[in-house]
Design a protein that fits this description.
Layout: H1 4-11, H2 15-25, E1 31-32, E2 38-39, H3 42-58, H4 62-78, H5 91-113, H6 117-153, H7 159-179, E3 188-192, H8 201-212, E4 216-221, H9 229-235, E5 240-244, H10 251-264, E6 269-273, E7 290-292, H11 298-305
Parallel strand pairs: 3-4, 3-5, 5-6, 6-7
Antiparallel strand pairs: 1-2
This protein binds cobalamin.
Length: 310
């Protein structure tokens, strides 16, 4: 979270202007600290950055931009992914929203494969300001990473392009991840992929989901060795582990670790996800307090995993 002074310095927008945009146009609605000071999220900063650019580059007036943002946010709420009730049923408006989604992805992909950091970040900022971070990740960035991975595997792009694109997008994930406040009353969770597993996108999306609920997610990411995990669980009193596996070859060693972890840490709940655990998987076993992502409602699992201790 950022103070008004910090946002003003970062974006070169005077504090008085930021306050006016908020009061008159509701461009952003920052949280307040206990002392009443404004606290801007990563998403607020992205919105303000895009607003500034639209004014400078396209000569738009603040009122026009505010109107457009309001329209887009209403469309956003109509999106089933956001879980909200549809506010706009007008088909042409919905079509416009889809067109913009495609438009941003079409701008982003060439920027990424051309190693153009500035252009790529601008496109992501714009998407975040129009759709919010969740829709941007689920509808634009995650499908784009899949496209990049597919193109790399098909030999259409080089490994350097794949690495650059993945890293830039992962950095944006982490930025938002870090900006979401942790609820001090919530226990910790750990999120990791076992050794050798590099597909981390599903794990990131789920970790973001937990973090949005205030869970202190210790994100270890891909290719995490088992050594030291026990120590971490004890040190941070970790109550939940989210584990993602794509390649089924990693399941047998993971099962050994789960045997040990479930008997040693009776308060630990585990959620296993990723294509490696498909319902047909021969390695699917049952442990106490271990669930498979495909058979479980995420919200219900969170309620059980993070319920206050008896
Ligand atoms: C992107 C990608 C990559 C990227 C990964 C980038 C990254 N940082 O994650 C890169 C380019 C690095 C990569 C590398 C490789 N890849 Co690859 N890759 C893909 C690709 C294109 C998309 C995977 C993806 O990210 N999907 C999107 C995510 C969001 O979906 P998801 O993982 O299923 O997650 C969803 C759910 O499963 C769930 N979920 C997932 N985990 C968890 C965890 C929890 C706790 C919960 C609750 C939910 C949850 O949430 C998500 C949302 O619904 C797929 C092909 C495809 N089109 O799917 C191949 C694919 C997965 N890759 C594959 C392979 C073989 C490789 C390589 C070995 C290729 C090689 N020749 O070297 C390497 C090495 C990887 C390794 N050692 O782990 C194979 C896997 C085959 C297999 N069964 O093992 C695939 C299927 C391609 C293929 N057709 O063969 N890859």
């Amino acid at each position: 979270m950022y103070s008004i002074q910090k946002v003003s310095d970062m974006l070169g927008i005077p504090g008085v202007t930021l306050r006016a945009w908020e009061a008159r146009h509701r461009i952003v609605n920052p949280l307040r600290s206990a002392g009443g000071h404004r606290l801007y999220s990563e998403e607020d900063v992205a919105t303000l950055r895009s607003v500034k650019r639209l004014m400078e580059e396209q000569g738009l007036k603040i009122g026009e931009i505010a109107y457009q943002l309001k329209q887009e946010k209403q469309i956003d709420r109509a999106d089933p992914y956001s879980g909200g009730r549809p506010l706009i049923s007008n088909a042409s408006e919905a079509a416009r929203s889809v067109r913009i989604d495609t438009h941003i992805a079409e701008r982003l992909y060439p920027a990424l494969v051309a190693f153009n950091t500035e252009e790529a970040n601008q496109a992501i900022d714009l998407a975040m300001s129009l759709y919010g971070y969740e829709k941007t990740f689920h509808s634009i960035l995650a499908p784009l990473l899949v496209r990049i991975g597919t193109d790399w595997e098909a030999g259409k792009i080089a490994v350097a392009q794949e690495h650059f694109a993945s890293q830039l997008i992962l950095q944006r994930f982490m930025q938002v991840f870090r900006s979401l406040p942790v609820d001090p009353n919530m226990p910790s969770a750990v999120a990791f992929c076992p050794p050798g597993e590099h597909h981390q996108l599903g794990l990131l999306l789920f970790s973001l989901y937990l973090r949005k609920r205030g869970v202190d997610v210790i994100y270890l990411g891909p290719d995490t060795p088992y050594e030291g995990l026990g120590q971490l669980i004890e040190m941070k009193d970790v109550r939940a582990a989210a584990i993602s596996v794509t390649d089924p070859a990693h399941i047998a060693p993971l099962s050994e670790w789960l045997d040990r972890a479930t008997s040693r840490y009776p308060a630990l709940r585990v959620l296993l996800g990723g294509p490696g655990f498909g319902p047909q998987s021969a390695d699917r076993r049952q442990w106490d307090r271990v669930s498979y992502e495909d058979g479980v409602d995420w919200e219900a699992w969170c309620l059980a995993a993070f319920a206050p201790r008896q």
